[in-house]
Every structure is written in C-alpha cells, then in structure tokens.
Amino acid sequence: MTIDSTMETTEELLSVLPLLNRIVAAEVRREAGDDTTMPQFRVLAYLAAEALTLSALAKRRRVSLQSMSELVQVLVGRGWITREPDPRDRRQSLLQLTDHGRQHYERAQSQALQRLAPLLAQLNDHERAAIRVALPALRRVLIQEEDNAVDER
Predict the structure, then answer these.
(1) Do 153 and 98 have their domain in common?
(2) Whose CA is closest to 94, among 55, 64, 62?
(3) Same structural domain, 31 and 71
(4) pLDDT for 56-101, tens place per residue?
C-alpha cells in the first residue's frame, strides 16, 4: 500500500468514526438516559471485562486521575460501579460493575448492536467480508499502540 492510499484510508476511517460514535451514543443515551456520556459507557465497557483501579482506568482512557475520579464518582452515585479494597494493594480500590451497572451496560451494548446490524446488512457480502478481515487487524495495531502508550507513562 502506498503512502497516498494509506492516507486516503486513514481519512476515510476518520470520517466514519464520528458517524459510528453518534449512532452508538444515541443508543447509549436511549438505554441509560440522556445524561449518560460515551466516556461513561467506555468505562463501563472496561469494567465489564475486568475490575480495575482508578489509575489503571485513567491510563487506559488517557485522562488525568482527577477527571477519572469525577467520572467514576458519577457512576458510583448511580449505583453502576462499586469500590472494593484491592487485595494486592490496600492503598488502592478496585472498581467493579454492580449487577445494575452490568445490566445497563449490556442493554446499551445490545441496543447499539441492534441498531448497527441492519446498517451492515445493507453492505454486500464482499464488503462485509472486507470489514471482518480489516477490523481485527486494526484492533490489533490500535491495542498495541495503546499498550505502548500506557507503558510510556
């Protein structure tokens, strides 16, 4: 792939992401309420996978501890996450989804999938196959970049 075609692909990706984010954000707000933000939903997604400390969440989201602390406090106030003592370090707390938080996350995730699936169904088989190949590869390089950035902090 030439530099020009790489840049064109990058530009196309950057033009698609805001559209995708708006659709997902609308579904999250529909399920979880108008005051639920995409950053809050992303925190729920991280915690759906595993319990994390506040500092680990801040590093993953690339935000300050103060910003993450404020976001987490909102989610604790809603009863969607809890703070539990970290058995490995008593100075830290592990953040975990509550059953209520997991239900909200899973319903919002399901709503987003149900909204996006018919859109992808409008693509032909070749286009869907190309996405199935491209997205895991893109995820791999983005995760690698994210891991490198976390390690550099």
Answers:
(1) no
(2) 55
(3) yes
(4) 999 888 899 999 999 999 999 999 999 998 888 888 899 999 999 9
Beta strands in the chain (DSSP E): 52-53, 81-86, 89-97
Q: Phi and psi (nearest 5°) for 28?
A: -65, -45
The pair of structure tokens assigned to 85 is 């003592």
Domain that holds residue 76: 24-122
Give SS3 for 85: strand
Q: Are residues 96 and 151 in the same domain?
A: no
Is 17 domain-assigned?
Answer: no
Euclidean distance between CA atoms 81 and 94, whole angstroms? 10
* pTM for this model (two decimals): 0.79
Structure tokens at 58: 């801040």
